[in-house]
Amino acid sequence: MGFFSKGITLPKRQLVTSLTLIDTPVPDTVVLPLRQYIGQPSQAAVSVGDTVTTGQIISECTDAACLPVHATISGTVTDISAHRDPRGSMTESVTIESDGTDTWIEPPEARDTALDTTDILDRIRSSGLIAKGLLPVPLDTDLAPIDQPKTHLYLNGTDIKKRIDTLIINCLDAEPSLGVNRYLAGMEHSSLPCGIDALKRITGAQRVIFAVDKHVAPSSQLKDMVKNDEEEATSIVTVNGRRYPAALPIVLVNTVLAREIPLPYGHPRDVGAAVYDIETVISIAEAVTGGTAQVDTMITIGGDAMAKQGIARVRIGVSIGSLIDSLGGLRADAAKIILGGPMTGMAHYDLATPITKEVTGLFAMTREQIQLSTGYRECINCGMCVKVCPVNLLPGIISLYCAKDKFDLAEAAGLFSCIECGACDYVCPSRRPLVHLFRHAKNQLME
Ligand code: SF4
Ligand code: SF4
Asked: What mean pLDDT is predicted for residues 220-238?
């Protein structure tokens, strides 16, 4: 078992209460932002009045930092204009009204899985997959230079070229409140071996480790993969998934492999590891074998104000409001609607905001589940934030520099090593808005 002693343990009332699959209908309308990741937006390749089929490409890309967008329902394009996206930005978006038939485009001919790495990456890209997480980027760009570590790793003037030796398949969720990966880790997936094989070929990893939550029994498929591996290069490591942020790659690599990712700007590949969610591995397999476009995404539905809780596969572009309606509406007065998890997600007031690829959860929290802001007080040097920080920073000290606009001192104290997990915020008895101060300082320094 991997051991992670820092971070926080969330109370049960903040966790999703069920990991069962909830049915959701094909929506009547979708709004598809032309950027659903960190990178450049794509350009609309359809016009108002055009008819489209599910899976059809409706935008084109100008560079590698951009991904094509696919129609997620069949129908008519009724609008192309800026809409609020899950990050709160106004982003050019294509609106499609359904024709009620959900007619799919003919998928490309299924090929065998013996593709070379360039073909695999092409398929991943044309399916529109992203790497979900704190920094959602087009998946192919995250994978592409994986055997070439970032160039900031210099030793005596020499680039360190460390090859990937281990593929960690993350069966935990970014936050304990989320549940998609834990749900998938308990199921059998015929496509899983193909996804693992594709990732091993791209990364060059020989060893595979499934990092699973100790509270959720892994499927017999995972256990069989370990048992049947004659080279003994596949294993399962259990981690306390209720501890936050145990599942973030920077922490997970340290917990599972005892390798420390250099910060700031470090990546698992810098220490010879590749970390991908089990959800991503299955999506890669589907892209490689079927070449189908990503038109839906799996998210966690949680919060006591939600009529149903569980795991839902939803069409990309459905609005928060219509998804909540299709799930039976809100059971009690919702005090806060959050896209993402309660720790790192973003509160939304506009229920027309669409669910996009980067969204991991939809939570409707009651007043009892949230802490309302009542202003913050001076730092009392209690050290609670230091105790929980997973990357060993002094959040209280850095926040004092940030609050006094001494951004250079904050940077020297490790500001950019902060992964914005929010654990320090959560425990601070003075209710100091630490992550908010850090984000503001980072923005000021980057400008
Ligand atoms: S300083 Fe950053 S990394 Fe450390 S606990 Fe706070 S938010 Fe997390
Ligand atoms: S937890 Fe809050 S009050 Fe305590 S040292 Fe950190 S910033 Fe200061």
From this structure: 93
